[in-house]
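Quick one, T. Sequence first:
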Amino acid sequence: MTIGQMIQADITIHAFFLTFAYPLIIEAKRRDLMAILFIVVAVFILFYINKLTNALCVQKEIPEERQPKVFRTINVLITILLISSYVDILLKSL
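Structure tokens:
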């Protein structure tokens, strides 16, 4: 996977989230439904980010011993982003 393809995939993820998932989550009046929808979207995003991270590790030939650190760092940062997004959506729905 080239850098251009990874950028295109990243743009696709953001377009999906902004077009479909975000409005559905905002419109969910019940918090439990909102949480379930957000968890489903978050799992999809984490899976896809890990797929892109793997492609990055292969393309840049990152050594095997450094790859867990790369994955851990990216997963922690994406998780922080997802949690802050959930809090933002939760506050907007009040």
